[in-house]
Design brief:
By secondary structure, this protein is α/β, with parallel strands linked by helices. The protein is built from 13 helices and 16 strands. The radius of gyration is 56 Å and the shape is rod-shaped.
Length: about 425
């Protein structure tokens, strides 16, 4: 076996500036652990003392098996491994070390004789990081050991930095995920609140314009639809008619069977009118047993009279409610325009709505136009109708053979009331 001798000179006592800078960097951290493997105790002792003076922690092994046991049980920053040992060569030890550790994880520096170039080549092929030749120049050995330790620690620091970065990224992603979840939850709550508010506003808007019992439009919606039709009428030239419907005998139903039956009857009559009159008319419940219907785009007054017949037929059909067979009648008052409105607004002045508490309609100066009409049709008078034109010269009374003129005259107060009710719904323009 070749004895390891260390060459030493006075300059070894002086620290090389580059080596000193590297040594200062390592001193700022934990001492590097160096495993010295050599079967000659003097060689180990000399290397151990000199490396300890450079702030290294030294562990010694006198053979290959001891070295492998120490490597398995401890962590080292580098290994100085002699090639020539009796029980197990350094090359075999290197081969076993590389089966568990990469060159970056555990640097191995081989110690060889100057004439053993073949061992150097084989050691490098087996994964040795570097080598030093005998006799060992300590400054060279120190520099190469420090270089390998720094490379190893730099790699470890990089791995730790990457792990810390990955952890920070994972934490950031987690915070982003949690914040996104909170924002999503907040947006969902806000969306639900907005939806609920819109639904509430829509419900309030619906209730403001519709009758809660029958679902028909109420007086407010009917007036707006009428105003819209009146605004469009000069352009379209449509004839308009308003039909005021009053159920006959409804109070008796309420008195005899209770309000629940009366409410069911109103809902049934409203449903019949919705289904039977079609989409060309607008139907509203004004309150109680009173309904109003707006008719446009029909020849008047014939269209209104035909519609009144249908309304009376629908309202007078028998109704079965809670085992009660209920039948009511209907009276229809009509007010409307039979043709295009005069440009000077005279029709408006003469068709101004009348209050029910006035005994007679208010009169205005001048002659009313011929295109305004009012009429009332009663179911109990069958086909007897009263046609009252605002033009005095056109006022007529037509009754069928089912009713005498006297009987129709006895209904004059009822005729006036129904006409005034329909006129109240007909704001035909500005006074």
């Amino acid at each position: 076996m070749l004895n390891l001798s260390l060459s030493y000179s006075e300059k070894d006592a002086r620290v090389d500036p580059a080596v000193g800078a590297a040594g200062g960097a390592m001193q700022a951290r934990a001492k590097p652990r160096l495993l010295v493997v050599d079967d000659i105790a003097d060689n180990r002792n000399i290397l151990a003392r000199r490396f300890q003076k450079r702030n290294f922690e030294i562990v010694e092994a006198d053979c290959g098996m001891t070295a492998l046991e120490l490597i398995a049980a401890n962590s080292f920053d580098a290994i100085l491994l002699d090639v020539m040992m009796p029980d197990m060569s350094g090359l075999e030890v290197l081969r076993r070390v590389r089966s568990g550790y990469s060159p970056e994880a555990l640097p191995v520096i081989m110690v060889t004789a100057n004439n053993q170039s073949a061992d150097v080549v084989e050691a490098l092929e087996l994964g040795a990081n570097d080598y030093v030749s005998k006799p060992v120049e300590f400054a060279v050995a120190l520099a190469r050991v420090r270089a390998q330790v720094e490379r190893k620690r730099t790699g470890e620091a990089l791995v730790e930095a990457n792990a810390a970065l990955n952890q920070a990224n994972a934490q950031l992603e987690q915070r982003v995920f949690e914040r996104t979840a909170r924002l999503t939850e907040a947006n969902d709550r806000l969306r639900n609140e907005v939806t609920a508010r819109e639904r509430s506003e829509a419900q309030s808007q619906y209730l403001a314009y519709h009758d809660a019992l029958t679902g028909l439009g109420n007086r407010l919606l009917f007036r707006e639809e009428l105003q819209r039709a009146l605004v469009e009428r000069p352009t379209t030239g449509d004839s308009l008619a308003i039909l005021f419907v009053d159920l006959d005998g409804f109070k008796g139903v309420n008195d005899a069977h209770g309000h629940s039956v009366g409410d069911a009857l109103l809902k049934m009559v409203a449903g019949r009118m919705l289904d039977g009159l079609g989409d060309s008319v607008r139907i509203a419940r004004l309150g109680g047993d009173e309904f109003a219907i707006l008719q446009a785009s029909c020849a008047q007054p014939e269209g209104a009279m035909s519609l009144a017949d249908r309304i009376i037929a629908l309202a007078s059909a028998p109704c079965v409610i809670d085992a009660y067979n209920v039948t009511v009648g209907a009276s229809v008052g009509i007010s409307g325009h039979a043709g295009a409105e005069q440009a000077d607004g005279g029709a408006v002045r003469h068709a101004r709505p009348q209050r029910l508490d006035r005994p007679t309609p208010r009169r205005t100066s001048g002659v009313p136009p011929d295109n305004l009409f009012q009429l009332v049709k009663f179911q109990n008078l069958r086909s007897c109708t009263r046609h009252e034109s605002l033009n005095p010269k056109l006022t007529t009374l037509n009754c069928s053979s089912y009713c005498s003129p006297g009987a129709c005259g006895n209904q004059r107060a009822r005729v006036r009331t129904a006409i005034r009710q329909s006129l109240q719904l007909m704001p035909l323009g500005r006074a």
